[in-house]
């Protein structure tokens, strides 16, 4: 029943162990509508996995103000509201947006790099786009906006 000679098992490296981060799953969220993606019957449409789940986390973190909701840890979310009323120049606001967004996204161990910020202004509102790269070298683009009265 058992082989007489031992068979060497092939060891496949676990990506979670190599990177130290578990990518997991997340429910898909429609950020424009502000609700989970639903089927026509009203059930949650499905889960995002791996890199897609990580990008969902990044988008949600940049849409959530830090310290506002008790359900989140103190490390989750942004602090863009701290820019309101400071009277900073546009260049200074852009620099602070890049810093705050980077700190927000790098709080997750799945995020390796944040950069490539592009800013556009409409009155006192500043929209931005940045690129994020995971520890698995998977990249995505994240959008956000800040009003700096």
UniProtKB/TrEMBL annotation:
It holds the Pfam family Sheath_initiator. This is DUF2634 domain-containing protein. The lineage of its organism: Bacteria, Bacillati, Bacillota, Bacilli, Bacillales.
């Amino acid at each position: 029943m058992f082989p007489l000679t031992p068979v060497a098992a092939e060891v496949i490296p676990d990506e979670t162990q190599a990177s130290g981060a578990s990518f997991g799953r997340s429910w898909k969220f429609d950020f424009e509508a502000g609700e989970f993606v639903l089927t026509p019957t009203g059930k949650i449409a499905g889960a995002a996995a791996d890199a897609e789940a990580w990008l969902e986390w990044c988008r949600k973190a940049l849409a959530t103000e830090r310290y506002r909701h008790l359900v989140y840890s103190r490390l989750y979310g942004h602090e863009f509201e701290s820019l309101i009323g400071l009277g900073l120049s546009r260049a200074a606001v852009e620099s602070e947006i890049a810093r705050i967004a980077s700190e927000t996204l790098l709080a997750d161990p799945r995020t390796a790099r944040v950069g490539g910020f592009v800013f556009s202004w409409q009155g006192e509102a500043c929209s931005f786009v940045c690129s994020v790269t995971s520890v698995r070298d998977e990249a995505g683009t994240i959008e956000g906006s800040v009003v700096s009265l």
